[in-house]
Design goal:
The structure holds two protein chains of two kinds. Chain A is built from 13 helices and no strands. Chain A is mainly alpha-helical. The longest helix of chain A is centred in the first third of the chain and has 41 residues, at about 15-55. Chain B is mostly helical. The chains are: A mainly alpha, B mainly alpha.
Chain lengths: ~325, ~300
């Protein structure tokens, strides 16, 4: 909102001011226009259009898209419907991945950030190395690890064999190994991201607090739990949220490394939704699922914020 | 691995430190040095875990098919050959075309983002106008919506424009992201007011102030946004695999998926494709490492 006080201030010529405000608003929207046009067409409109699609049986190959109201949503909660079992299996797979990956994606970067925050030489070189895999696409990372972890021909099993360990681990073709691989690869790929964010958070903690804790006789662990973790809380809230959302949106690793297998065990929600909508042409059902997933993630994010806030009190 | 040698540079007496638990006079020294050694050991170990797979990818791309899967695995190509790259260049899959498509799409999208986001961010950061809070709120709110919500509607929209299976689909929809506007707005707000006010006194209009003052002062932020936008577009996977259909129209990331399907056990060839898709972004990262890492690092502190 423009500040109405400027327009109605007593004594000031009302009209010229209003005209000036109008001109300023016009100028501002001229600057905004190019972005807002693309934004409206590819962000605002599709968000609403998706809801509309979700109320229909929408096969893009047919001209007729029968309106079915909330049936697509009801189906997702009706055992025995066409989508019920597969959808919730894929939500379960996403849940497994989130629960298995997020703790590592927080703990390992936090540990590395603490090490990098010490007075060491070459800190920025290490930081650069740890961040490097993150600039590679999920496709590069996935085809690379698909090769390294190949159960018969891969290097990882070969090296394990040389060390006298089991050399026939079904990294990509059996559970739980497939989950271990997907989590491990994701940690390898993205650990640098959380590391640099947490490192910036650590650098923002007042060094006097450590000084004071030392004077009180606090050891390294005590300092970590009483100074470092509370000092990191705002940054940690951000990192936890972003990591949860990123893991919940996992797609490429499963698509390329396990192809959702064995069977459909590692087929994530995103993978199932994309397949239903864009391969099976069940666009109504698929958009309904995408909104349900969105609602799910929104609830988780809000809970996470609440939890972190309550901890601060 | 050099985990042992490098720490000795900074810790001149590691041997003493390690063998002196009994001598009380030395415990102090030990306390100060031993954690440092351990710190370096862990950091080098993690570096090793990060770097070795990447080197393995590079070295494998110079192996023959047989060598790539021979056991026991040796890191060094024997014989060293560029056969995999030759097969890619002359084979049925137009990887050079994919490379060109990726460069064109990422460059074009970066240009669109720089122009549209900087203008929009200028209005949101520097101008007062009706509806500002609503516009900004709407842009920020979309940062929280997962991409899958837009996947199917945008597929239909792109289809209705006749953009399926064309680079337009890779270039335009992704330009609408809220991140660029948000990022530049934060930077523009931090710029001092004095120069702008002086220019206004001299009769400069909004456009001149934007073009001749704000943009030149914002070169570092614009460069960072350019690099981040390029990386994002270059690496995007889920969108191009569904909207690009014919082999000659692919970009590199969906191309890699096709490559893996076509040459499943010809690992030298698949790794050569992965190297081709990695080299541009790794060069960009090396050149702009400081800006990339720092802008990402500050996201948590500010956010």
């Amino acid at each position: 909102m423009a500040d109405p006080a400027i327009v109605t201030r007593p004594g000031g010529g009302l009209r010229p001011r209003r005209a000036a405000a109008g001109r300023r608003t016009l100028t501002a929207y001229l600057f905004l226009a190019p972005f807002l046009v693309i934004f409206a067409v590819f962000v605002v409109f599709p968000a609403v259009y998706g809801l509309w699609i979700s109320l229909h049986v929408w096969n893009p190959l047919l001209d007729d898209h029968p309106f079915v109201g909330l049936q697509n949503f009801f189906d997702l909660f009706t055992p025995g419907s066409l989508t019920f079992e597969d959808f919730w299996e894929s939500m379960g797979a996403t849940g497994i991945f989130v629960v298995a990956s997020v703790p590592f994606l927080l703990a390992i970067p936090l540990g590395i950030a603490v090490l990098l925050n010490r007075k060491i030489k070459g800190g920025s070189v290490f930081r650069g190395i740890f961040f490097a895999p993150y600039v590679l696409g999920v496709a590069v990372v996935s085809v690379l690890w698909r090769y390294l972890l190949d159960p018969q021909l891969g290097v990882v099993n070969a090296v394990l064999g040389l060390l006298g360990l089991p050399s026939d681990i079904p990294w990509t073709v059996d559970v739980p190994w497939a989950w271990i691989s997907l989590v491990g690869i994701t940690v390898w790929w993205t650990l640098g991201l959380n590391t640099v964010i947490l490192l910036a958070g650590l650098k923002g903690i007042n060094p006097d607090l450590y000084e004071a804790a030392s004077l009180d006789g606090a050891g390294a662990w005590r300092k970590f739990t009483s100074v470092t973790l509370p000092g990191l809380r705002p940054v940690m809230t951000f990192v936890v949220t972003v990591t949860l959302l990123a893991s919940a949106n996992m797609f490429g690793q499963s698509f390329l490394i396990t192809q959702g297998g064995p069977g459909t065990a590692t087929r994530t929600a995103i993978m199932y939704i994309a397949n239903q909508g864009l391969v099976q042409n069940q666009m109504g059902a698929a958009t309904a699922m995408s909104y349900l997933l969105f609602a799910f993630l929104a609830v988780v994010s809000v809970l996470n914020f609440r939890l972190q806030r309550d901890n601060t009190k | 691995m050099s985990t042992v040698t490098t720490p000795t540079v900074t810790a001149p007496a590691p041997a003493t430190a390690a063998t002196a638990p009994a001598a009380p006079a030395r415990t102090r020294k030990r306390r100060r040095r031993a954690p440092n050694l351990l710190t370096y050991a862990v950091l080098f170990l993690i570096s090793f875990i990060i770097v070795v797979p990447l080197l393995w990818m590079l070295l494998t791309s110079f192996k023959t098919d047989f060598d790539a899967i021979s056991s026991p695995a040796s890191p060094w190509p024997n014989p060293f050959t560029t056969e995999a790259y030759g097969t890619l260049a002359t084979g049925n899959l137009p990887i050079l075309r994919w490379f060109a498509n990726s460069v064109i799409a990422a460059t074009a999208q970066t240009a669109i983002i720089l122009v549209t986001a900087s203008a929009a961010a200028y209005a949101l950061a520097r101008l007062e106008f009706r509806g500002k809070k609503i516009v900004f709120g709407a842009i920020v709110a979309t940062l929280l919506v997962p991409g899958v919500v837009f996947l199917i509607p945008n597929y239909l929209i792109v289809d209705s424009f006749g953009w399926l299976d064309s680079l337009w689909a890779i270039i335009v929809p992704g330009s609408a992201g809220a991140f660029g506007v948000f990022f530049l707005r934060q930077f523009f707000i931090s710029l001092p007011n004095e120069i702008e006010e002086a220019a206004r006194v001299d009769g400069a209009g909004d456009f001149r102030i934007f073009w001749q003052i704000i943009l030149p002062l914002s070169r570092p932020a614009l460069a960072t946004l350019a690099v981040l936008s390029f990386l994002t577009n270059w690496n995007d996977f889920i969108w191009p695999i569904y909207v690009l259909l014919s082999p000659e129209n692919l970009t590199l990331q969906p191309g890699l998926s096709v490559l893996q399907g076509t040459y499943s056990t010809h690992f030298g060839i698949v790794m050569a494709g992965a190297v081709i898709a990695s080299v541009p972004v790794l060069i960009l990262f090396t050149l702009a490492q400081k800006q990339i890492v720092e802008s990402v690092a500050s996201s948590g502190v500010k956010g």
